Structures are given as C-alpha cells and as structure tokens.
Amino acid sequence: MRDTLPLLERIPFPGIRRAHLETLQVNVGYRCNQSCVHCHVNAGPNRTEEMDDDTVDLVLDVLVRRKIDTLDITGGAPELNPHFRRLVRAARKRGVHVMDRCNLTILEQPGQEDTAEFLARERVEIVASMPCYLQDNVERQRGKGVFDVSIRSLRKLNTLGYGRGLPLDLVYNPQGPFLPPSQAALEADYKRVLGQEYGIVFDRLYVLANMPIQRFGSMLVSKGEFDSYLQMLQHAHLDANLDSVMCRNLVSVDWRGFLYDCDFNQMLDLPVERAGARLHLRDLLAGGIDGRPIRVGGHCYGCTAGQGSSCGGALKEAAE
Q1: Across the chain, what does the average pLDDT equal?
Q2: CA 23, CA 40: separation in Å to the nearest integer?
Q3: Per-residue pLDDT tens for 243-264?
C-alpha cells in the first residue's frame, strides 16, 4: 500500500487552533468484519489492534475530569472490542452522550445478535454507514450481500425505536474521487427511497468526502489520480468552513490511548505532541489542550472543500 503522507505534507493548509474540547472520539480497535475500499482506517478482519481494559478506564476518567459531553466510539467495528459494552454502560451512567459508528452488518455477526437491543437500552446514538440507497452502488463499495444485511439491520433498529425517538443517522461516502452532493438534497432522496421501498426511517444523513489516505489514497496513487483529486479539493476549499471543522472541538484517541487532532491524523500517525513527545490520555487528566495549534496537511482540504465535511456531515449546510 502506498503511503500518501509524504505527498500530503508538501501541500500547505491554513493554520487553525483548537477551541474548547467537547467530544472524545475513541477508536477502540481496527478489527472489522468488512474491508471497504474507501475506509480511511484500513480496517479489516485480520487487524489485531485493540483497546485494553486499562485504557478504557482512562477514557472514563478523562470524560469526568475534563467534563466532556460526548463520547464518539469508532473502529474498525467498535462492537467487536470485548470492552465495548462496559465502556458504553459506564459512560452513560456518567451522563455522557454516546455515539456508536456502526457499519450495520456487524449486527448480524455471531455473538452480536443482541447488540442492537443493548444500544437501544443505553440510548446510544447510532451513526451507520450506508453509502447509497441503491443495492448495486452499496455492493460495489462494500461487497456482495451487504445491502440486504444493512436493510434488515435498519428495519430491526426501527422496531427498537431508532429513527422514532432514538437517534439514527446514516453516512454517505462518494463512490470515487469527487465531492459528495448536497447533503440536504441527498438526505431527501435517501428518506424517500428507503421509506417507500423498505419502510425505513432515520433522522439525518451525513455526507463525507473520501480522504486521500490509506486504501483510498493508495488507490488514487495507483490510478494516477492523486494529484487531480487534491487539486479538486484545494480549488473547492472555503475559508468559511475552517471555523466548523471537527478538530477544533474534538480529539481523537487511538487504541493505545495516544491523542490526535482527528481520526485522519491518527491514520497518518500525526499525533498531538508537546516538546516532541506524544500526548496521551494521561496528559488530559493533568491539563487541557484548548488553544493548541492543530497539525494540518493536504488531506485537511477533504474537510473544507465545497460544503465541507466532518464526522458530523456537511459544515456549510449545517451552518446555514
């Protein structure tokens, strides 16, 4: 796999600084039951990195010490971590809003048959990957049979109250090297087709641009499309999106407990540092990181191009 970091480091990006920390985004491991082409984590069934019990305890301590409102749990498939449910239960007992980045197909994996019920009992917000409302497009990106499993999982979530009081959001990624369409317009299409064809309801659709890192970045390089994709992102950049990018109010935590300005920087191994040393969850127990400069590079244009995108979807439309 081609490393795109040397290419991205050569591309300048406007300097930005952290605001108040509101969200702890925790990657509990890179193991997943799928291996999607667009996955910026390079997750898959053979990955072994996994957050341990002691680091989970540190996450919970930091949530309390720093008075953080939101815990955003991601992976891989985060549900595969053996400490996932303990982390969710303990965070909810502390009054923290918990989000689960779910790929939907995990809900039918052996050992996960009651996961949907668990998430509903704990009133966890589900942010589910659903790259299209058309079967061919989904299976082209995520594999044969994924669409039918995703539909069954969404129906099950609806029966448990998701999309009908419990928060259920879907995530769209483009199929190739281009920007996502209007979030509002695409959300209307998703709701119309999924509602009419399958009786499925959900709350919001998030549109995310594909990041030129890991599998997707390597594919761009191999096809000779890396430079043109980055040029497109740069030409579509809007300064207005800089105030709303996720890294201003979020910190990403890897499975070992080290800190990054965002999940993408985590995958590029660009940690938050002080005096050349990586910062860890333990450092957040001692003090905050508000006001620190954010590590940026060419990949950051993936969050500021066009509508802008982040883990919470489009920035420009959301602001409007």
Answers
A1: 91
A2: 20
A3: 999 999 999 999 999 999 999 9
8: pLDDT strictly greater than 80: yes
Q: Are 102 and 206 in contact (CB under 8 A)?
A: no
Cβ proximity of 145 and 111 under 8 Å: no
Would you say 315 and 308 are in contact if contact means Cβ atoms under 8 Å apart? yes
CA 85 → CA 26, 52, 88, 137, distances in Å?
14, 13, 5, 32
Q: Answer whether residue 27 shows pLDDT above 80.
A: yes
Residue that has been written with the tokens 């930091």 in this structure: 62
Question: Residues near 301 by Cβ (< 8 Å), separated by ≥ 6?
Answer: 11, 13, 230, 233, 234, 236, 237
* Cis ω for the linkage preceding 76 (within 30 of 0): yes
Quote the percentage of the chain above a pLDDT of 70.
Answer: 94
Q: What's the token pair of residue 219? A: 């594919």
- For residue 234, give the amino acid letter: Q
245 torsion bin: left (phi>0), alpha (psi -120 to 50), beta (else): beta
Residue bearing the bigger pLDDT, 131 or 97: 97
Q: Per CATH, which fold does 19-223+246-291 belong to?
A: TIM Barrel (3.20.20)
Domain boundary assignment for the chain:
19-223+246-291
